[in-house]
Amino acid sequence: MNLEKLPKQYQLFYTISRKLFLEKEFKCVAILSKNPYLTALIACHGAKVDISPPYLSGTCILLPEKDKSKGYFHAVIDETVVFEGGEFYYFRRRKPRANSICEPERHASKCSEIESEGKVFPYQVEKDWLGKRNIVEEDLKNLSNSLFPVIVGRDAKSKVNYWKNMPLGIDLYPNFSMQCALNSSIKNSNISALDIYTSQSFNGSNYPNQIWVNEVPENIDKGRFLIIISPFNSNFKDLIMQVDDLYSEKNLVYVDFDNVSEELKRLGFNKTILTATIMKEVVK
């Protein structure tokens, strides 16, 4: 997929996200969007990071059974050890329908095998992961080992799933959807590499990169934030006031238009259309 062949609005949101989350040029960006959840997924594309080994203790992962026709099982990395000159991962698994009170089984495999065949889910937790049913290999073929910002918003899961699977009707790529760009979901399963929450259920301490849709975080001290607001939202004026309050409360400053990169200007970030408000931390 050639990014330059996609619509400029797509390229703009992708680039803003890349500069915010990956290049760390900004602290917080607030965007107006008529389709905020589609914009959130485009931002996930811009901030997509491949997960590289070695895998840390506690990492949730899908691993193939010795007989691959039986699919991939759910496991959790325990530790890495060196034995007779080779590197191995110890991992834990619990067979489906096994008593959850029983201790998980502990196994070891070569690091090279796990790193080449495993599918990593960095924000899943052991108590919700172990003991799930196996997943067939065919359903995993388009899944990449990737890390994305967390998405926070009201009814976010259903809206993300809607926009993720909706063909975008791009002339050169009529069947292109955000799932094609992200490769974030397991076919025929609710498991996804995207982490999605409501503001009530979200504890942001583990997420350095956050996308908030039609809501404004109370605290942006730790991490980087993209706030996406629909002009059609019933609380639009209140949300804009909350964004403005971030400046004074968190000692942030606007990034002047003249200091915005030429790349963003070329993609349509300009004075005539309020596309985004960009904030940086004050240099002391």
Describe, in plain words, how this protein is organized in 3D:
There is one protein chain. Helix 1 (8-22) packs across helix 2 (36-46) and helix 2 (36-46) packs across helix 5. The protein has 284 residues and is of the alpha/beta class. It has helices at 8-22, 36-46, 111-117, 126-129, 156-164, 178-182, 236-249, 262-266, and strands at 28-32, 49-50, 60-64, 72-83, 86-93, 105-110, 119-121, 146-147, 150-153, 196-197, 209-213, 224-229, 252-254, 276-281. The longest helix is centred in the first third of the chain and has 15 residues, at 8-22. The chain has two domains: 3-48 and 148-281, no CATH class; 60-140, no CATH class. The termini are far apart. Strand 3 and strand 4 (72-83) form a beta hairpin. The strands form three sheets. A seven-stranded mixed sheet has the order 10-9-11-12-1-14-13, sandwiched between helices. The protein has eight helices and 14 strands. The radius of gyration is 21 Å and the shape is globular. 25% of the residues lie in helices and 24% in strands.
Question: What layout of secondary structure does this protein have?
Answer:
Elements: H1 8-22, E1 28-32, H2 36-46, E2 49-50, E3 60-64, E4 72-83, E5 86-93, E6 105-110, H3 111-117, E7 119-121, H4 126-129, E8 146-147, E9 150-153, H5 156-164, H6 178-182, E10 196-197, E11 209-213, E12 224-229, H7 236-249, E13 252-254, H8 262-266, E14 276-281
Helix pairs in contact: 1-2, 2-5
